[in-house]
Design goal:
single chain, 218 residues, alpha/beta, FAD/NAD(P)-binding domain, 2 domains, 5-stranded parallel β-sheet, 10 helices, 11% strand
Amino acid sequence: MKRLYIVVEGQTEQEFVNELMAPYLQDSGIYSVTPVLIHTSRSGRGDMVNYQHLYNTIKILLCSANTDFVVTTFIDFFRLPNTMPDYAQCMAITDKIQCVEALEESLDKHIDDRRFFSYIQLHEFEALLFSSNRGFEYYFSEACAQKTAAIISSYANPEDINTSPQGAPSKRILAIKPDYNKVIEGNLIALEIGINTILDNCPRFAAWVNRIVDCCKD
């Protein structure tokens, strides 16, 4: 089984990979799962502000001639840098799923390595937290949990939650709970929900995880 590197934007995604994805993937025989924070400078890690940071991080991982590993990404569609390959062309696509798929395809072509494939989370990490109200009920007040429940009931697919910049999943959570801490609370909520519930309710995310398993088995 091949080793897996997942390039992530920040600490929240890093912990999510370590705490939820890695144990799940280990059940499929993928025992080496390493989240890699995007290099923003010689000493800085995380919070991608331009495509070059992402590109450099990926290329460093791919510099080896070995073929016993797979590299993928776990980055947000929300506020994606406009320096991404074919950004304007892709963003002109009105259907958001097709738009994200076009961005992923352009990124894959630009990296041009069989050991790499990209994944862009629609619309951002917090979408996964709306897979169930269980996490919000456990960590938020009853009044706040009632508001998150109303959002969940309005969407058949949590990955569709985003009607405007202020309608992004994280912005909705902050509107309900202004002191929401993404790094701490985000992963606690995700752990309470559980990876299987997230996979059952987020089809693009589930398809990515399934592709990881298939690629690591090849």
